[in-house]
Amino acid sequence: MPSEKRLAGKTAIVTGGASGIGEATTRLFVKEGARVIIADIDDTKGESLESELNFEGEVALYRNFDVTSEHRWVQVVDEVLEKWCRLDIVVNNAGMSGAKGRATVEETVVENWDTVFAVNSTAIMLGTKTAIPAMRKNGGGSVVNVSSIFGIVGSPAGAAYHASKGAARTFSKAAAVQYASDNIRVNSVHPGFTDTPMTLDIHSQKEIREARLAMTPLGRLGLPQDIAYGILYLASDEAAWVTGIELVIDGGEIAW
Questions:
Q1: What pLDDT is stored for residue 211 in this prediction?
Q2: Which segments of the chain have a pLDDT < 70?
Q3: Dihedrals φ, ψ of 12, to 5°?
Q4: From 62, 161, 229, 233, the catalytic residue
């Protein structure tokens, strides 16, 4: 096995980077040699994580970040280029579900649909769009868009969530084809049932948790680091010939 860290010398932006899958990804990226912008809206968690990771030197910066704002994307990418002179990786991980995302088609309120799409789909487009010119200057880069198994299959509820995550999946394929000639790779990751702050409310309900466990052949729900290791692979040069794929990490659920 090579001794060099897998992301040595690389710079990344991780949205939703202060908790759950994003936090696990941020920690793993720093461990593997990357400098990371922690993009989130939770100042307490973000600042705490920044302080912890910078204990032995500046490798992480927390920035309060509305991922649906194109202006904010431009600001943060410009800051990365000014400070670290390059942007190699963008992980579009920030997402939302909750009551707004879990309604059936008939129960869906248009305003809620638009809100879910803004975070789960439009923000992914903005992050990818803004990163492309910076990555082109490097001779390439990697965009990893965190979708869901519910961007591939359906369920009894969640019309907006399913549709927005499905849009992220197909968008990733389109961008992968369009920017392959620039050596910019774009892939999507599709977590199964994973214990994160976003799923705490639903996974704390015994009946739902047991049903989801029963649907998962490997016999446990996912942990954030299970997903982070897949993101790490796609971000690294080990995946230099990998673009436009959907990496499912779900304990075997959709293999049934």
A1: 83
A2: 1-3, 200
A3: -135, 155
A4: 161
CATH 3.90.209.20 fits 11-248, yes or no: no
Pairing of strands 89-92, 141-146: parallel
Long-range contacts from 133-137, C-beta under 8 angstroms, 24+ separation: 134/77, 134/80, 134/81, 134/86, 134/87, 135/87, 135/88, 135/182, 135/184, 136/182, 136/184, 137/86
Q: Structural domain boundaries of the chain?
A: 11-248
Cα–Cα distance, 147 to 14 (Å, whole number): 14
- Six-digit token pair at 218? 């490997």
Judge contact between 116 and 160, C-beta under 8 A.
Answer: yes
**Residue 153 structure tokens:** 């299959």
User: What's the pLDDT tens digit per position in 243-255?
Assistant: 999 999 999 999 9
- Which letter does DSSP use for residue 244 in this model? S
- Report how far Cα 118 is from the mean position of its chain's Cα atoms: 15
For residue 65, the Cα-to-chain-centroid distance in whole angstroms is 14
Residue 179 is among the residues annotated as catalytic for this protein = no
pLDDT digits (tens, 9 = 90+) for 33-56: 999 999 999 999 999 999 999 998
CA 217 vs CA 81, 190, 196: distances in Å: 44, 16, 20
Amino acid 212: pLDDT: 84
Centre a 10 Å sphere on the Cβ of residue 239 and count the other Cβ atoms it contains.
17
Strand 60-64 versus strand 89-92 pairing type: unpaired
